[in-house]
Structures are given as C-alpha cells and as structure tokens.
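Researcher: First entry.
Model:
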Amino acid sequence: MNLLSTLRAGCIGLGTAALLATFSPHALASSDSYSLRGDVTLDGKVDIKDAQAALQGILKVMPFSSQQTLSADVNGDGVVNIADVIAILRITTGVEPLVAEAPPATNDVVDDAEPLGKNRAKNYWEQRVDTNPVDPNSATLLTSIGLATSLHPDFGADYEGAPNGIPFMETNGDVPALPTTFSWDDESDNGAYPVPLTAPVEGGPNADGDRHVIVVDKAHHKLYEMYNAYPGSGGWSADAGAVWDTDTYAPRPAGWTSADAAGLPIYPGLVKYDEVASGVVKHAFRFTVKRSRKAYVYPATHYASSKTDPTLPPMGMRVRLKASVNITNYPKQAQPILKALKSYGMILADNGGNWFMSGAPDNRWDDDQLNTLKQIKGSDFEVVQMSEPVIGK
C-alpha cells in the first residue's frame, strides 16, 4: 500500500499513532520554507508530531486554533486536508506517494464547514504564469490600455458611503432553490438557483450598474452568478446566469457569455480580504479595460466589443506584474496582492475602467493601503503569451 492509500485508510479506520509509527522523526532547519507552515504543534519545528496533530484535527479528534489552521495548511491551497499530512510526512521522512490517484467516491463527503477545493487539481485561475513567455505583441497591447495609467483597486472598505466592490455570499447548501429567469436564456444556465432573496447586490438594492449577484454553495462546490439581477416576490430575474463547479471552473461553450462579459466566473478572480490577511494569495485577479477587441482567448469564451483593431486586447488576455518591479516598500495589505500579480497575474474579463482590478468589499480593508497600488502603472506589466485569439464574426 502506498503512502496516499495508507493515509486514506487511516482516515477511515486506523488510529493516528499506528498510522504514523512507521515514520522516523526528522525536524527541519529553521530556514526551510516549511518552517512556518507545517509547525502545527507550534513548538518551533516540523516533525512527525505535526503530521499526527494535523491528522487528528482533520478527523476532529482535536480542534484547531486559528494559528494552527494556518500552520497546518502546509501546501498553501487554503484547505487543511490529507494532502497537508502527506506534505509533512514527505518533508520529514522523504517518503513520496507512489500514485496520486483520485479519492474513492465514498470518500467525497463534504463537511458543511470545509473550505472549497477538496481533492482537486489547480484550475486556470490558480496556474502560475511567472515563468511563461511574454507575448510578442505585449508592448502594443499594453500601449492600447495605457502605459502611464495607474492600476486601480476597484474595491475597498467604503466608496461614497457604500460598500466598495463586488460582494458575494457563502452558504452551506441549505438554501432552497428559487425560480430564476434570464433575458439571455440561450447562453445562460437555466433553472432554479439556491440564491436567497437577501443576497447582496453589487452597488446595493437600488443600483443601476452591473448588479452582479454571487453565491457560493460550499457544501456542493457550486458557484451561482447572475448579471443585472433583481429579486422578486418569489425568485430572481436577471439578464444572464451561470453555474460553476468550483473545483474546475470548466470553461463555458465557445461563444457563450456568463455573468461576466468574457464568459468567465467572477468570484475566483476577486481580491478577498481574508486571503490577503493570510499573507498569501494563490490565484489570478479579474480586471477590465475601456476598449477591447472583438475576440477572445482561453479561458474566455466570449468577446465584448465590435472593434476589430488587432492592437486592442482580447477577452481572456492575462497580464502579470514584471519580476523587476520593486514591491518591498508597499504596506501589508498591498504586498500579497502584488506578489500574486507577479505569480498569477490578472485576466481580462470585461469592459470598464483601464487597469481596474476587481475585489470584494470588506470594512476591514484599509483604503489608504490599497491606494498605494495606484503607484503601479501599465508599463509595469507584461502580457503572458497567448494562443491565437478566436475572432468574433
């Protein structure tokens, strides 16, 4: 039985002591990158005791403190699960899993309190692009957006007395599905949506803008998004709606829009306070430009323009912050965002303000810190090499 199978067996029936007894302790040097994450017992070293503590916490034999939860997320994917126990065992014993097989269907039971992302591979939002080649047309495309134009965090704690950003709501799968109708039903995922009539609307209940409504069903790993949405007496009406599997965010059919112009999901591309507060953000962000091309590239499936000028960016284009940009003097809330921009970048998702980066409102944001991001200019970015765009007809 390989390590991964052994661990799964341990989750089902074996005691943690028996499971871990065959591994020899080996503490890591303090300089190792795992010296902070992985120290579940908070004793200043990473050893087999940490693997045991992590497994006990997953099995709910012992509760995790908030600090332990952060330490136990060894692989930094936002989830504490068997993969983190494997990571601890790997670095303390040198044992590798022989086959990274998928979990049996009987193990795919979701606890209501479990974060998103159990037993899945990274999706395109979470793919690092810091070593990808630069697109040959990078300079031309960036010039069309604005080399001297500032990055604009389109989110924060407050804007003119209202929450600033695109809000979302999380549920545990206990919300009844309500009748939902769409004006663009030929490109929408039709059907009843488990979206409470009290779900927050972008811009507030009286807004006349995009009026996005976003609900994440954590229990079933589903994301429900609507554009120009209005609650009624017993359900919702909207222009467009899309339902996503949050494990994959598989692209929509070619030519289809979503609640976003590019046919992309909005939620995974938002800058979220809790992620930034953790110190590490591991996904790309959503951004907009004023003028785009009548074209799209993967992972987008839809264009949002009638312009055919090849110097304009297509929907789905990804940019990243240049590695040479010095970010050391930026404040605490800006640092994780800038690091993610270097590693994961931003994906063009809609027409709007140039270099407007989307995020979720939160009264814990420090708007002064976020505004330092405006020191970043268009010339600080580069376009990640793209496939040949699909041209609109």
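Researcher: Second entry.
Model:
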Amino acid sequence: MQTPVRRPTRERRAEIAAAALRIIGERGVTSLTTASLAAEIGVTSGALFRHFTSRDAILAESVRYAVGRIEETFPDPALPPLERILRLARNRVRVLGSDPGLAWLLRSEQALLTMPEDAAAQLRALVAKTRRYLLDALVEGAKEGSVRRDVEPDVLLLTVMGTIHAMIGLGALHRKSTDGRPDLDRVLAGLERLVAPPAATAPSRRASKPTPGRNRRQR
C-alpha cells in the first residue's frame, strides 16, 4: 500500500486559509469553527492545529492569503491613468465578485472588528492603498486631459469606488448576466463615460444623431 505524501506546510496553510474564507463568504463568520473548517477540508480538527495554534491564527493567515490575492489586482502603474482605473475595477470585480469571502473582508466593517488587530491593520492598509492608487490616477489623468476636470478628483474617487463595490456586491457580474442585470463590460463602459472628460464622448453622441438636412435628402 502506497504511503500518502504529506503536502508541504505552506500549501496546506494556504488551503486552510482559503477554506476559512469560503466558509465565511458562504455561511457567515459565526459559522467558522474548528469543526466546520476541518469538515470543509476533509481533515481532523487536530490536523488543523498542526499548522495553526488558534482560530485567530487561522483568521490572520486568511487575511494574509486574501491580501496577496488582492494585491495582484493592481495594474501596472506605468499604464495610462484612465486605463489603470478601468483595469483595477475589472480585476477587482473578477476576483472579489467570484469569492464572497474576499469581498467580505474588504467591504464589511464586521471584518475589521472580527479579525485580530494585526490582520485588521493589513486590511485597512490595503483599502488605503487602493484609494491612493485610484486618486493618483485621477489626479494624473486630470492633468493630462484623459480624466474630467469639472469634478474634483476626491469626489470622482467616490464614484469609482462606489461603482466597484456595487459591481462586487452583485456577485455574478463578472459573468455575462442572463437575468436583466448589466454585464461587466457595459458597466465599465458607463464608468469610463463618467470619468472621462465630457468632450471625449461628445463626438460619438453627435455622430449617432442624424442631422435634419440629411433626413430630408433621404426622404
């Protein structure tokens, strides 16, 4: 009989962290117990504590795991400002919209109250980094003309972040909607129209509206 190969500690810790977030996202944080987590992974409760000393240690690892995944959603800062904003929005919706646990960590005040202090500090730092990233792009875009200047960047930031959070809250928006909800591409196109200077979209509106003279000739 072949002896089972023990999985590396780092891999097992990541698996436990992901499972903890899955339970939180699907059933709520109060459902995360040693028993529920062990059952989710298919191990004994004792096996969990070969990798973690406490439930708080598991929560802290879950936050580290989540922050690592969310950090990957930041686009290359060398991209044009408006493209950075739209790519970040798309990346966040695709990652968080398909993972309720990740979404809960970033969007719920309860997460900050539930997590160990060091982990909560990591979440606050990630939110602050996101705000700085978007605000820098808005300011830079306004200076170069790719972002509207008639709305102050810190006010426009609320529109961008609110749109991202709303899309994440709709959950399945990262996939093509079949129930009447707007799909991600349409929402991002709308966000671009809100963020870009009005003059940038004016030509397309004019082109889509036939002139009276043209109509008369056609008749």
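Model: Note on the second entry: The longest helix spans residues 117-144.
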